[in-house]
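Quick review question:
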């Protein structure tokens, strides 16, 4: 099982297939909205949830382990971005491009959105940042799938590594 923790005892636990769907729909949304350095760092973190590369059943992260920023303004902006990504994904943004129907994706997104909404970034743990550094941010784009790429980690986006 793959676990995405809300930092307050709440978590989203998904099967390998459910996690792949969750990451796919989030990558579609984050690729559309990313504009700032934190956005691209979060996009890189999503690419690291690619089970085709990382292995099945070993991905996930805790909201409390993210570097949300040093100031209240930075933390609020990061949280707002993540909520906007989830909201865009909930509109089924680009889902028609998927090679499958994601029947449980909406439920996963709603659960995770509630976790993010309830999360207080000031409670994040220091020294545990799981976000890739600015030099490893996902700024390259996969031309074929029009999403942010997993460079510099591996050559290909989550759809390329899945053989889509």
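Suggested answer, residue by residue:
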């Amino acid at each position: 099982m793959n676990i995405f923790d809300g930092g307050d005892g709440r978590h989203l636990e998904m099967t390998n297939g459910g996690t792949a769907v969750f990451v796919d729909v989030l990558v579609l949304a984050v690729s559309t909205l990313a504009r700032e350095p934190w956005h691209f760092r979060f996009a890189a973190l999503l690419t690291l949830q690619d089970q085709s590369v990382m292995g099945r059943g070993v991905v996930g992260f805790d909201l409390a382990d993210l570097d949300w920023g040093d100031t209240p303004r930075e933390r609020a902006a990061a949280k707002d971005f993540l909520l906007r990504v989830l909201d865009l994904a909930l509109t089924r943004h680009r889902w028609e491009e998927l090679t499958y129907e994601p029947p449980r994706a909406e439920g996963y997104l709603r659960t995770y959105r509630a976790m993010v909404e309830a999360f207080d970034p000031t409670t994040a743990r220091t020294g545990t940042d799981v976000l890739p550094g600015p030099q490893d941010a996902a700024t390259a784009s996969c031309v074929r799938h029009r999403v942010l790429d997993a460079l510099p980690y591996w050559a290909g986006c989550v759809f390329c590594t899945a053989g889509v």
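Why it works: The two ends are 23 Å apart (CA to CA). The chain has a mean pLDDT of 86.
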